Amino acid sequence: MARKETAADAANPGRLKQIALTYKMTRKADKKIGLVLAAVGIVTFGVFLAIGFLIGHPIYLGILGLLLAFLAMAIVFGRRAERAAFGQMEGQPGAAAAVLDNVGRGWTTTPAVAMNRSQDVVHRAVGKAGIVLVGEGNPNRVKGLLAAEKKKMARIVADVPVHDLIVGTGDDQVALKKLRTTMLKLPRVLSGPQVTATNDRLRAMGDLMSNMPLPKGPMPKGMRMPRGGPKLR
After folding, report:
1. What Pfam family is a match for this entry (predicted)?
2. How do residues 64-75 score in pLDDT, each as one tens digit?
3. Among 223, 217, 222, 219, residue whose Cα is nearest residue 85
């Protein structure tokens, strides 16, 4: 019992530090975050306290209002922090791969299955919706990469639906902040065993980055393909 309490106490400073760090990062992109959170908390608490006085239970409604105020502040903070994070990631190479890593359970992501010298890149995700190819970079060049990757996969997984998305802000493109939602809305057509079989076949096919270490998060802007490495698609 004592060990569990000690572990919990040790974890609390870490959580608080993480929240503080997230707040600082969010405030850089969202200068009004402090005022917004304060307004949400005060208004929520004030409404419940006023109702409490009207019905003759100010203490009970005041406590409830305080708890709900913290909950409302947490929800608003989470959404604005997420929006700020996407804003900072927008346009950075490898940003789509970072989003794909957090789509959710049931999806297997393989970053950079195709890339050219201009650092346009295609990532692959496999789930019950089938195969999703996500391209980022110049739309005209990315379309060529997507077409080449789909043609290569057609020989291996011809019976699996393939969806292709291009991350961006133009027409027929998907905004980075909407990428996860767009993927989760795709119709589920494969069973669990079919997803596993598809992943196995694709792994056997190999990919561009199979023998290259890829750091997590956005790729460095100065990244270049090594000479003598795999041929570019």
Report:
1. DUF4191
2. 999 999 999 999
3. 217
